[in-house]
Recover the amino acids of this structure.
DNA sequence: ATGGCCACCGAGGGTGGA
């Protein structure tokens, strides 16, 4: 089973890229973040015409997550993790016996800010939900844009004084991993580990990036991972002729 | 070169992203 996580930075702007991705890479499950649209603007017809199912938790302007899949989802949870009910950052469902949870974790803006405190609170709620989910599901995959760098190797410019890199944020991630999840990342000799590059200052070209898009799996699945890939080609303006503007994130795929 | 912010809302510039 091929499982992908991708922060698309607007599903409607990125629709041609997403459809090309489905066609080129044939994921069984594609988890998206930052849809940035209401339910009525979500391009469900286009996705269904491509032969896929979709479940979504939509919100106007901000956030929004969905799971696009070849097989039909069961036991769907729409926005199970939230502090404010209208803020859509989580969605979960079961696909062929595997529980898949998709998060768009709060950014946090700046260390010590109200948004930073909110991020840590959100992560606490997420941990409680995951603990419950892990008690009920042996085979579980947690994916998403975590907005947290796991270690100093995962940022070109790592500083624990910076947002995404602080000790508290990384501790929150470690607490989640300690519940019984493994980071499915695998190093590649010819490639840095990054999944996100700022649009500004030619960051992608200079490979000034961060690894913040993660796929975490239970022990039962971890040893069976056949491959881990970051699809950087989608970050090239030439990749999708219909829509040369790219997301600032690259899709991350594992094959089970 | 694989580049030099982008997307939202709304009608222009403010806000959020990471």
């Amino acid at each position: 089973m091929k499982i992908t996580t991708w922060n698309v930075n607007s599903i409607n702007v990125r629709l041609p890229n997403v459809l090309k991705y489905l066609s080129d890479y044939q994921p069984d499950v594609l988890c998206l973040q930052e849809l940035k649209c209401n339910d009525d603007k979500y391009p469900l017809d286009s996705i269904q015409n491509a032969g896929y199912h979709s479940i979504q938790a939509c919100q106007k302007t901000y956030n929004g997550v969905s799971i696009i899949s070849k097989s039909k989802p069961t036991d769907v949870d729409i926005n199970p993790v939230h502090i404010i009910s209208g803020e859509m950052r989580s969605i979960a469902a079961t696909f062929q016996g595997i529980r898949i949870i998709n998060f768009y974790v709060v950014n946090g803006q700046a260390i010590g800010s109200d948004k930073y405190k909110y991020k840590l609170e959100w992560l606490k709620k997420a941990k409680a939900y995951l603990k419950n989910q892990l008690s009920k599901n042996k085979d579980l995959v947690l994916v998403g844009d975590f907005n947290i760098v796991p270690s100093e190797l995962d940022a070109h410019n790592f500083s624990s004084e910076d947002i995404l890199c602080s000790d508290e944020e990384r501790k929150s991630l470690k607490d989640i991993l300690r519940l019984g999840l493994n980071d499915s990342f695998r190093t590649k000799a010819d490639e840095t580990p990054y999944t996100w590059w700022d649009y500004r200052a030619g960051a992608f070209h200079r490979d000034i990036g961060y690894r913040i898009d993660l796929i975490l799996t239970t022990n039962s699945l971890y040893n069976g991972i056949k491959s881990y890939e970051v699809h950087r080609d989608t970050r090239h303006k030439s990749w999708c002729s219909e829509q040369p503007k790219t997301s600032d994130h690259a899709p991350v795929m594992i094959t089970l």
